[in-house]
Structure formats: C-alpha cells, structure tokens
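Protein Record: Sequence and Backbone Structure Tokens
======================================================

Structure line: whole-number tokens from a learned vocabulary of local backbone shapes, matched to residues.

Purpose: to set a sequence beside its fold so the mapping can be learned.

___
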Amino acid sequence: MKTTAKDVMITDFKTLNPDSPISDALKIFKASKVSGKTIFGIMVIDKDGSIAGMISMYDVLLFLLPKHVKIWGNISDIEIEGIIDRAAGKLKNLFVGDIMTPKIISVTPDTHLMMILDIMIKKHVRRLPVISNGTAVGMVYISDLFNHLLERV
C-alpha cells in the first residue's frame, strides 16, 4: 500500500539556481506544456546543492501584477494600453533569485500522504520538494497525490 512521499513523488524534476535568468524558468514552463506534464513550479538549488527556494508561475504573475491594480477602478489617468507588454519587458533582466519564494515547505520521503495533503491544503501549495539528508530527491505534486487517492475510490 502506497502511503508516503516516496511512493508518489516524481524523481525526474527540473532545477534552477538563483543566478539563472528568469528566461530559463519561462522556457521550462513553456516546454513542459508541450512535453506532457505541465510544470508550474521549479526547485531552486544553491551552489552547495541545498534547496534555496521555489520559482513558480505564481511568483512570475505576482511580479507582473502592478502594485496599484486594486485602485484602478478609481483612477482615470493610468495608461492601460501596453501595460502587459511593459510588465513582460521587466522580466528580461531578472534572475530566478530575484522573485523566487525563498521560504519553502518540504517533506521527507517517509512523510505520510495524509500529512502531505494536510500541508498542501492548509498552506495552499501545489507542490512540495522531498528532501533527504539535505538533498532534493523528489517532488510531490498535488495532481499526483489526487490521482493516487482517486485510484483507491
């Protein structure tokens, strides 16, 4: 009976380092859509091989979102035309470490699936790195966990 992270984790996962250009992350996101399993989050590994954070679709979108977006309905002098192109242009000079989420939650290969599910739901995360002895050995995606649980129904 499969009950732990090691039973459902993916061991073939992409990584980047904090000094990678953000364009490398965007290429991985785009290529994954073509290759099968869509990737929306990538582990960031530092030069010592330790996990430094995660870069996700959410991090990119959060960076692109103008800070004053909540008050747009009240301001008539904001130039909306071209705002998406200007926001996307800001990505060109960024590195992964500039916008990654540095504080991540991880699990071990022996973490029970119900604990992983609890973490994912409470913390609103869709993927959790699996770390063993300080090294990233896998990734548990919420879709794989969900599909695993569906097999039991």
